[in-house]
Predict the structure.
Amino acid sequence: MRYLDEFSDPDLARRLLDQIHAAATRPWALMEVCGGQTHSIIRHGIDQLLPKGVEMIHGPGCPVCVTPLETIDKALAIAAQPGVIFCSFGDMLRVPGSGRDLFAVKSAGADVRVVYSPLDALTIARENPDKQVVFFGIGFETTAPANAMTVHQAERLGVGNFSLLVSHVLVPPAIAAIMESPRCRVQAFLAAGHVCSVMGTGEYPPLAAKYRVPIVVTGFEPLDILEGIRQTVVQLEAGRHEVGNAYPRAVPAEGNPVARAMLAEVFEVTDRTWRGIGMIPGSGWRLAPRYRPFDAEHRFAVTGIHTEESSLCRSGEVLQGLIKPHQCAAFGKQCTPRNPLGATMVSSEGACAAYYAYRRLDLVSIS
């Protein structure tokens, strides 16, 4: 409870807010990259306490949300095959594919299991040598080390009936893609603290310099976010564009060298499609050639699936920060947590889910 109390202190929060109000003299548009930060901002009403004109734009940092529809359909196709045990974290089971989700496949008789670690899936594979066990490996740099270690262990132990359906994406190329968009309004970024705890901060100075935007590594508690906003506004007002660290208790500059070494061994960089956004060059990982035998996409020959998004769903614009969730006409009507059109409504880190859960239902235009 110590950190919950320490980093939610209302007196300290007011002090930080006073400093932000004193520093801000002009309108600024800041993007928090991570969906966990989005939920904290909306839950605590942080965006509503900021100076008028200081706007929080919600970014694409929700791993469930950006997993492409094509990959979801590949997961559904694999899970439905006989002799397969398909393992996933629970937040993927209700993400809609083209026509159904993993819950629907499970209800039709497929062996779909919720696990709490990829190592749980590896254990299931060792206990069921007559089955093909697949783990759905999604996420940003944060979750990738555990998935990499599991594949490494599968090779070391000779567990040939285990494979990984990979959909890992990388934050720095996404920041570049956002800044290259002709509709971009972002003037600064709050970078995802847990990503940087793995990868460090070394990839961000070239982005800050090239696009002339401050990038401040930020945590997830209210005071973390307010301190990140404060540092960002101070930079903007001074005309600086540097990389700052508002989360030093968790993020060293070098990140986690052991995790980074494992990632470099097991994965290689590849182009990756982001749901609702499109293909971003060099924005993902796939298994390196040594570990390609553990690639479920190739093992089950599901490389030729092509899909189309719902014409009603505007989650891609939400993920790019071009609209707020309640500016989608389907929000709260055709699209709800029980009947989601897109992953942003069903994911625990999705911006649409945050707006729905915390009753941000009024349609308000963005200036």
